[in-house]
Design brief:
284 residues, His-Me finger endonuclease fold, 3 domains, 12 strands, zinc ion binding, HNH_nuc, HNH
């Protein structure tokens, strides 16, 4: 998985100015200038390109705990090493498209400013998410919200559905599907075939929100060891072995569901084959 970059606390006005200019100039390159004398080392060592961009996630100075914007980084430059002619071109761009930035500045708050980040496809996320959804590549831990703006961290790239505009809960999505199935079953064969002939072959992507639980891995291991490869309901052998490690495939079922206040304990859990697990949930 590729490394991505999280910028902590960018001024909203800077980002909104880019969004406004981007409306009339889609695909154009814009620039961010983090206030720091420290180089963003991974961008320096492996500069991204248009063909191989790096994903960027951004919080704002007023919302340090939320991922508010995303973009693609397509280049990095050390501002202290930019030749005069290149700086002139950049300043002309700033003057025309990002006038609030004023210029490619070489110092900020009395210290050198080093990083110039070239971005495209800046997006304001319709649904803001906690920065805790970002996982640091250094140690695999979630990013913690900070109280002050500034700095950055390398994070794992989020899935491509992240930031989709349409959002639904898991329950609403299932309810919508069940209602659609009921309506479809009442149609004549001819009417259903007509609808199928006009339907898109690719399903629409939406972002699904649901509540989950951080389950105890020790409970899972103990229950699987207790089952010893046999379903604890029908007592048949597991139907197949896991491709990942060759162990018998059984699924963990909570007798009293976690969503109903059940405990995540060995006593409240069973190892079931897929058929029994589905029957327990959906059978008569």
């Amino acid at each position: 998985m590729k490394d991505s970059l999280f910028l902590n606390g960018v001024f909203k006005s800077v980002l909104e100015e880019i969004l406004e200019a981007q409306k009339d100039h889609p695909g154009k390159t814009f620039y961010l200038q983090p206030h720091s004398s420290q180089r963003i080392v991974k961008l320096k060592e492996n500069p991204p390109t248009k063909d191989n961009p790096t994903s960027l996630y951004i919080s704002t100075t007023k919302n340090l705990d939320k991922i508010c914007y995303s973009a693609e980084i397509i280049d990095w430059e050390n501002k202290q090493e930019i030749p005069p002619k290149r700086r002139e071109v950049l300043n002309n761009h700033i003057s025309k498209y990002q006038p609030k930035e004023e210029e490619i500045y070489l110092t900020a708050n009395g210290t050198e400013s080093v990083n110039l980040i070239s971005i495209v496809n800046l997006k304001k996320l319709p649904n803001q998410f906690s920065v805790k959804n970002l996982i640091k590549t250094r140690n695999g831990e979630p990013v913690k919200p900070r109280k002050q703006s500034g700095n950055w961290v390398y994070v794992k790239e989020l899935p491509n559905w992240f930031g989709l505009e349409e959002t639904s809960t898991e329950e609403n999505l299932e309810e919508e599907l069940e209602k659609g199935i009921e309506e479809s079953s009442k149609l004549s064969d001819e009417a259903r075939q007509e609808r199928l002939s006009q339907a898109s072959k690719k399903p629409e992507q939406i972002q699904v929100l649901s509540k989950g639980y951080r389950r105890n891995p020790d409970v899972i291991v103990e229950v699987l060891k207790r089952a010893d490869g046999e379903c604890e309901r029908c007592e048949d052998d597991a139907p197949f072995l896991r491709a990942s490690d060759g162990t018998p495939y059984l699924e963990i079922h909570h007798k009293k569901p976690l969503a109903e206040g059940g405990n995540d304990t060995v006593e409240n859990a069973m190892a079931l084959c897929p058929n029994c697990h589905r029957e327990v949930h959906y059978g008569q």
